[in-house]
Structures are given as C-alpha cells and as structure tokens.
Amino acid sequence: MPKKKSKRKWSQDVTDRSDAMDLKEGVFKHRSAKKIADSLKVSAEQSNRRKASPFQAAMSMLSFSINRAGRQLSKSKLVTLDRAKDELRKDFGKKPRQ
Fold it and tell me: Pick the residue with more confidence: 15 or 22?
C-alpha cells in the first residue's frame, strides 16, 4: 500500500515540539520588525528549553521561519523579517549587517 501523505508539514511539528524555545502565538504575523524582534528576544531570554544563547536561539527561530515559508512568503513580509534580524542584532548589542 502506498504511504499516506500527512496533511501537516514537518516544520509545523518542529515549531510545536522543538526544544528551541517557547514563542508567543502569532509572533511572525506582526507588521513591525521591532515588535517581532522584541518578542523573540523576550521569548529567548525567558525560555528554559533553548540549547544555545538567547541571541542564537532567537536568530535561529527567525531564520527557520523565513526558510520554511519559502516562496509563500510575500516580498513585503520577507523585508519585514529581514529587518527584524537587524533589530534583533541591535537588541542584543551586536552590529547590524552591512
């Protein structure tokens, strides 16, 4: 018998069950890059489930979200999430990329 395809994406399982960190619901739906970065920073600092530093955990979650959305991500949302990376760097006292 052919294998049944799951309706859920593996990336959703990673988001739901990962030990990366706990995120507030809808964090990536904000229109403001600053709000996204601030929420990720708070989640990363408060989480006991992360394995890396708060900065690395927050940046990884943001990159994961961008990569998993792929082509379905609108250009404006991609720009917002890229700006959120820069905001996250600022929030953690890192240099923004050039």
Answer: 22
For the whole model, what pTM was predicted?
0.76
What gap in Å lies between CA 30 and CA 80, rounded to an integer?
Answer: 9
Query: In degrees rounded to 5, what are phi and psi of residue 48?
Result: -95, -5
Sorted by where each begins, the domain ranges of the chain are 30-98
Q: What is the pLDDT of residue 41?
A: 93
Closest residue by Cα to residue 53 from 7, 84, 5, 94: 94
SS3 label, residue 85 = helix
Q: Residue 36: its pLDDT value, please?
A: 93
Give yes or no for a contact between 38 and 62, defined as CB atoms under 8 angstroms apart.
no
